[in-house]
Amino acid sequence: MPYPSDRERDRPWVMRTYAGHSSATKSNELYRRNLSKGQTGLSIAFDLPTQTGYDPDHELAKGEVGKVGVPVTHIGDMRTLFDQIPLGVANTSMTINATAMWLLSLYVSVAQEQAEAEGADWHEVVAKLAGTTQNDIIKEYLSRGTYVFPPGPSLRLITDMVAWTVSNVPKWNPINICSYHLQEVGATPVQEVAYAMCTAIAVLDAVRDSGQVPAEKFGEVVSRISFFVNAGVRFIEEMCKMRAFTELWDEITRDRYGITDEKQRRFRYGVQVNSLGLTEAQPENNVQRIVLEMLAVSLSRKARARAIQLPAWNEALGLPRPWDQQWALRMQQVLAYETDLLEYEDIFDGSPVIEAKVNEIITGAREEIDRVQAMGGAVAAVESGYMKTQMVGSLAERRRLIENGEQVIVGVNKFDTTEPSPLQAEGAKAIETADPAAELEAVEAVRRWRSERDAAAVDESLRKLREAAKTDVNLMDATLACAHAGVTTGEWSAALREVFGEYRAPTGVSGASVGGEAGVELAAVRERVKATGEELGERLRMLVGKPGLDGHSNGAEQIAVRARDTGFEVVYQGIRLTPDQIVAAAVQEGVHVVGLSILSGSHLEAVPAVVEGLRAAGAGDVPVVVGGIIPPDDAKILAERGVARVFTPKDYEMTQIMDEIVNVIREANKLP
Questions:
Q1: I need a labelling partner for 421 at 20 to 30 A (CA). Which of 37, 177, 211, 368 fits?
Q2: Is pTM beyond 0.85 here?
Q3: What is the 3-state secondary structure (H, E, C) of 230-250?
Q4: How many CB atoms within 10 Å of residue 410?
Q5: Alpha-carbon gap, residue 28 to 191, rounded angstroms
Q6: What share of the chain is helix, strand, coil (3-state, %, to 5)?
Q7: pLDDT tens profile 355-391
Q8: Mind spelling out the 3-state secondary structure of 577-625?
Q9: What residues are labeled active site?
Q10: Which H or E run contains 229?
């Protein structure tokens, strides 16, 4: 996105909506509809099997296919996804991390095919490709949990992509350092800036040290590093955070890497405003939250986002409808085209208040960066659990402030009386639902794809990929060969799993606590936990489980922390577990209750599997409770299937949740 001079009207940012679900065909229809409404870029949401490297027919993919994004299993799906969308002129953001190299290879391969079909030189078309692969694996270990490989091999995949794109797809951003999800799991502005910069340093150091890019071209590497940030409702603080980001990035790239070209040092970022702050209670309030958060990343010209995507008002309820996404797009268009926002130079220059806040964030971020670098950098701080523990603790503090009323959430902990909402009136169908047949169709489609392709070519391309992974050769060419041969997402990932192994990141739970909890209420629940344990003759034990591929673990982590602080012995093994593994752990540990956390929409498949598994294992008397984004109709179904309680985002007071879980245990054990 070109930057005009200060005397010109600024150009609007790239306008996107984050979208994709059910199938490549349905998502393609949605993308073309959104583009026709004036959207200027695409932001692709992939489903969890695609993000974590599984095909639709894998055991862990059950219930997850097409739920939080579109399944892309092979080059045929990518062709369908971009049917009638010329990639040579598109601007595409792909939220994909562990399998980013694979999805970029599919994207490049389809661009080649489109060029050849039009009789164009595919090299020229590929050189024009514009967009971003998110590809920030560090934050996956800390937040979203869609990592696959250990940190070292993951950083190698990023390094290879950066080096390859600089030479072959020079307009592409091979990574955006993604602090968005750090804020979602509790990071303060200082932590968000510091940990994003630490990740960027780790990536740039790895590319430099790999020797794949000549020193004289390193400025081109720096210029292709982009960022993806979060913007909360404290929009003055958030705007100052963006100015701090801009100043600190300029400083690091100049002083640490010797980049003299100011354009190459420019801080370039896209943004989605805060989804964690969207409320299930009075969800219409989310509209003004989203608008205010958009101002945080657009008011300051020097730190203005160059791409913005907004969530819909009802994303705390479920999947937004096309109309809801249109509403979010129109918010951007009104701001960009009806207001005078883009007509002025930076309106905050010279403000002592803004300057003081920016300096406060920069100072704190520098100190935290130095702390992480002294540990050996971002990778070491991930492996030790340091950064994860810091953010679990920050989120615990945020929740404490909400629960005691110091941090007001309108419609939740204050001003909670409400009129019936016409947006959620009976028959309004307030959310989109993924087609339940999509998963079966995807399973049948991938099996048909495997039976119709050239098996020998697939086997040979995978063999070469495994052999290349054992060396230090760049893996992009081998991955592109796999894409053209018809390899599937699961096969590509499985080949690299054989060489690199898998990884389970630290949970951060053991070192976190509800610091400063004053509470009479917490003490009362702690006493109930102790008394109930004495009546049963042993300390109460709770298993917190994350079934399926949903890696958004902050809810589960906060429940685990609060359960421990109220006196439970907590069993929490992290993310990505099968129902059988959860059942086995529950039986082995002799727990009194199983708490499941699911945010991906797979609750109707995964939760009953755990309930039935406990019954089959002779532990049917162990109650199961569930937390997540669960519509009321689904909650009724879960209750009918044997779930003792269902908690949703409106149940924000976790000490009360603990009290209710004690009630569940007492009911299950027939205690008064």
A1: 37
A2: yes
A3: EECCCHHHHHHHHHHHHHHHH
A4: 15
A5: 37
A6: 50, 10, 35
A7: 999 999 999 999 999 999 999 999 999 989 899 889 8
A8: ECHHHHHHHHHHHCCCEEEEEECCCCHHHHHHHHHHHHHHCCCCCCCEE
A9: 18, 180-181, 546, 550, 552
A10: strand 225-231
